[in-house]
Amino acid sequence: MIERTSIKITSDTLNLQDCTNFVDDASCGGVVLFVGTVRNSTKNKTVNLLEFSAYEPMAVKELQKIADKALTLFPIYKIAIHHAVGKLKIGEVPVIIAVSSAHRKAAFEACEFAIDTLKETVPIWKKEYFDDGEIWVNSHP
Description:
Structural class: alpha+beta
Radius of gyration: 15 Å
Mean pLDDT: 95
Number of strands: 10
Number of helices: 3
Distance between the termini: 33 Å
Number of domains: 1
Low-confidence stretches: none
Largest sheet: 4 strands, mixed
CATH architecture: Alpha-Beta Complex
């Protein structure tokens, strides 16, 4: 049986090529990638770095639920959802979502569904560090 989902939470650097390789298939005309990066500002404040933490057993289950739901809602072939934890500097990558499908529209829709749902339901929290202190951003799930 073909594995159609790749779920990972890691303190290692995320690898875009691993995600792309996982979803790649000759039957797919579309591969959509979402790569979230740490930006240097938010709400008119300079961000120095971000720290991500997760309740990993539950987060992995929730990411798997998102991937499984995407496979049922959209005509996609494969989906990878990888998220980093730990401290990340400006420009580093905390999240990669890769989706493949025969046609681009399904891949775009599934990718958007995955990132939106991840932000709403997965127990991963973000702390922003500034020159004058830090703050936890996510108050949910």
